[in-house]
Amino acid sequence: DDERDRELKRAKELAEAQARAAKRTRAGLVAALALASLAGVVSVYALKQTDLARTERVQAEEAMVLLRENLAFMNYELTTSIVDYVPLETQQRLTEQLAAMMEIVDQHNLAFASDRDLKDRAAALVRWADSLEAGDNVNLEYVLEIRGVAHQVYEKLASKNPSDTSFQELLADSHRRIGNIRQTLGDLRAARAHYEGALEIEQANALRAPPNTGSQRGLLISHQALGGIHEALGNLAAAKVAYEASMEIAKTLAAGDPTNNTWQRDFSLTQQRLGRVHHALGNLFAAKTAYEAGLKIAKALTLRDPHNTQFQRDLAASHALMGDINMVLGNLVAAAVAYETSIETAKTLAARDPSNVQFQRDLIAMHTRLGDIHDALGDPATAKADYEVSMNIATTLASRDLSNTHFQRDLLVAHERLGNIHSALGNLELARIAYEAMTEIAKTIAARDPSNTRFQDLLSVSHERLGDVYQAQGDLGAARSAYEAGLEIRQALAAHDPSNEQWAADLRKVHVRLANLDLLARSLSGLLVAESMLELTVPLEELTSINGDLSETDARLEDERYARLYRLNLASGQTITATLQSEDFDTYLILVDSKGNMIGENDDFDGSNSRVSFTVTDDGQFTIIVTSFGPGETGRFALQLE
To answer: What is the pTM of this model?
Structure first.
């Protein structure tokens, strides 16, 4: 006991000395308070341990709870308050010491606490994590640690009480919450494992007890979450199965009580998700039907409660999805109307609460989509104005918080869209500047979290866009460097998850870009293995459309793709839009200038169809190359020139 008292005295003296020294600076005041508190808590811990043999266990347990709460609070304070003022080495040492003490206390609590106490403690941790997640500048890794501690408690309770469905439900909910964070952090495989864990528990509960609306809704949410992760991983067939399962439950719940707004909203959101997968799979009319059903419910909910901001946001999203599907179906005017309606709703919400950054981000997304539709309507000037609105909002948000990855990503997309429109208008230097800004942002957010596959994907896209504009400017060396940088990322992503079909397709596209670059590095005559070539050299106004047949008798590129070449005489100031369509093969369209530089290429403007737009800056002869995405493809095609 004497030795313990001496150790305690030395610890207190050291902490007090550090606190006095820290008071010399403003930041030190925060550290002093934390260190002084640490000394007090250590003394409480030591005294309680000394008295443990002489006091009732319940008193010791109360002290342990108090100690754990103080340690947790201090750990949070040290993490969030003195990060800018205390040397990193000191921060790490303090937090490691606190974490070690917390682990000892947690082990004691888990060993001796009752189920009710454990449940209460886990619930407190969940509330704490919820409050942190709802705040600004969220440290998701830290939130994940807190949820992980609560998850361990729920696992213990569920294992100890396998027939108690309430503990099982808590564990399932914990799986979903951790899965959500993992997905946001880009760890899709870990997220999928947690969603699968939640679904397994919900399905077991459904067999163990009579169905009830609470358990059914939990099952619905688990199916939706798993569908979302399959969708993000590019496993669209699996996503469709998951969403269809959630649809059956949502439909049953909504029909059982048409006045229950939560269940009606679940039904609407499930329609949106299923429609999105149908859209991605090319089932366009099925997607449109699902979107229309979701929109109908969203409108009804908004009429029931006009002041409910969540219902208003859902309505804006439903209109945007209708814009998406109408655009793909070629109903461009209807798409524009849908996007404009969505923007009006988003503006109302933003005006109602100007400080709400999510409403501002909704406006960014909607103006970007409206710009896309104006671009598709052949109105690049209006599209540019839409993109500039998005850029202005995104710039304002990003400047407020440089560390906010969401804001940076919005700004990245704005740069990309403006780069695209500058490129289409022939303003290659402005396009290069936009794409370089895009690439710098992509590098920054990818460096912050190298394991986040979404950020890696964005960085690859940035390199590819920059490669395109370098190629259009005739700088083939810079283009090759950019494409190879993108290729390295694509290869890593494909190796990370070989089952991801989208990543596999993206990897092939980069290989095609590099193959095209190699072909363009030679003369056009060097492209051809076979001698046959169909050429048409006429002014643009005399040629509006061509119906042809890509066959084995046509010219053949070095990578075994068949090709037809059409040469056009164009004057400075003319804008050409070439659209290539085929029901027989996946089209690929290339536009080459008189110097042999590729100035435009496209694979998938609309499904498997292609479109290239370009404004001529100098008189000359231009070549349109009609080919396929993959080698050996043949069939009928229609080339439209405007």
So the answer is: 0.58
